[in-house]
């Protein structure tokens, strides 16, 4: 019996040491990147937020515009993807042919790069159920993102050769 206990101890000791060792995973919020991030063995990823759920009853156009402004502030001004993606529906449709549909797929694309992209906001506009963000980046040049909102959440996104709506003035809708 004693021999069996010694053998079991010898086999389990390395396993116990591995399980008791500190993990390489840490969750942080830093000054450089306001998003919550996970660092695991040198890899950095944004913590997946709780994606937007439809608001019932649906918000008014004014309430949706206020949500758009909060999204725009988090996405462009503070570059906080964790907060910004709380406004995106989990099944949102991405009309960019290089990207898959879904909020998680978009977060997987932007998460590893967004904190190092330099962004210069140009203008933002909200009208009806559509919101537009126009900004310049050091990685992608000038961008116009268009978002369709449904029940208080971003349901669709376009960014391929999107025109900015006429009448949208520089600084319009900035918060």
TrEMBL record:
Annotated protein name in UniProt: SnoaL-like domain-containing protein
Organism from which the protein derives: Bombardia bombarda
Signal peptide: 1-20
UniProt keyword annotations, A-Z: Signal
Gene3D superfamilies per UniProt: 3.10.450.50
């Amino acid at each position: 019996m004693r021999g069996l206990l010694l053998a079991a101890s010898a086999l389990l000791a390395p396993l116990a040491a591995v399980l008791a060792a500190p993990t390489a995973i840490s969750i942080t919020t830093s000054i450089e990147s306001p998003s919550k991030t996970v660092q695991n063995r040198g890899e950095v990823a944004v913590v997946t937020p709780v994606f937007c759920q439809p608001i019932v009853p649906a918000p008014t156009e004014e309430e949706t515009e206020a949500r758009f402004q909060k999204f725009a502030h988090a996405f462009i001004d503070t570059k906080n993807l964790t907060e910004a993606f709380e406004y995106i529906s989990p099944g949102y449709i991405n009309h960019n042919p290089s990207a898959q549909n879904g909020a998680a797929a978009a977060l997987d694309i932007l998460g590893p790069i967004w904190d190092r992209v330099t962004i210069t906001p140009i203008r933002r506009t909200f009208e009806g159920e559509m919101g537009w963000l126009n900004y310049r980046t050091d990685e992608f040049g000038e961008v116009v993102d268009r978002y369709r909102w449904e029940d208080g959440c971003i349901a669709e996104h376009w960014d391929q050769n999107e025109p900015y709506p006429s009448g949208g003035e520089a600084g319009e809708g900035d918060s």
